[in-house]
Each structure stands twice: as C-alpha cells, then as structure tokens.
Give the backbone structure.
Amino acid sequence: MEVKNMKTKVLTAALLTALVVVAGASQAQNRPNFATLDTDSDGSITLAELQAHAEQRFTNADKNGDGALSLDEMSGRGADRAEQAVARLDANEDGMLQLAELQTGRGDRLARGFPSIDTDQDGGLSEAEFEAAREVLGRVRVADQRN
C-alpha cells in the first residue's frame, strides 16, 4: 500500500507541475485556483479544462509568439528548473519546448496523472480532490527544497 501511495504522490506532483511548467515568474507564483480551472462552473474540473488552461499558459509564456518556449521565456521558474525541463522534454533537441512536446511522450503528465487524483474516477476533479492534490504537491515541493 505504501508503494501505491508514493506512486500517487509522484503522479500528482507531476500532474500539477505540468500546470506550471510553462509559466513565467508571476504566473508560477499565482497558481490557478479551482474556480479559475472550472471554466464551465459545473463544480468539476475535467482533463479538457486542465489541458486548455495549460495551453493558455503556454501561449502567455511564449512572449515572442514563435510557438516555442526558450530558456529565457521559462526563466521565471529558475534557470536550473528551466534547463531540467528542456533536458527532459525537448524531443526535437532544439533547446526549446513546443506545446506538442509538453503534450506527448514523457510530457503528457496531465493525461497520465489525472486518473490518480480523480479518486472517484468520475472524469472530473471535485474541489476536495483538487485541494488534496495541491496539498500533496506542496509537500513534495517542500521536500524538494530540502534536498
């Protein structure tokens, strides 16, 4: 059971990290709340709503509009974290991240992680599920900062 809990925590952290991977400094500090992500105000956040939000954040972070995030455009995350993201996700090895690289392969964290935080498996995150996932992410970030 402990291994399953750890996997859930890691997937949850990966999912929520994907929400901010493309954010600039001010966006990273202002993580979206439940109401912001629940764009149709039905009391549930779907995978599609999370993906749309991630795409919008990507567009907002892409300051020069070239369809790719350079290290400079991701510098609000910190140079080391931006470089790590590019090293992990830059499939075409151009030194930048395109939206497709964040949505496919190893970068498809939203789709892979969503079922692990949708604990009732109804296809949407309730506010309680969303807050539980944020709490796990907060603990993971604190642990990362200590290491």
Remarks:
- Residues 124 and 145 are 31 Å apart (CA to CA).
- The helical segments are 2-20, 25-29, 34-37, 47-61, 79-89, 99-103, 109-117, 127-146.
- The first strand starts at residue 45 and ends at 46.
- DSSP finds eight helices and four strands in the chain.
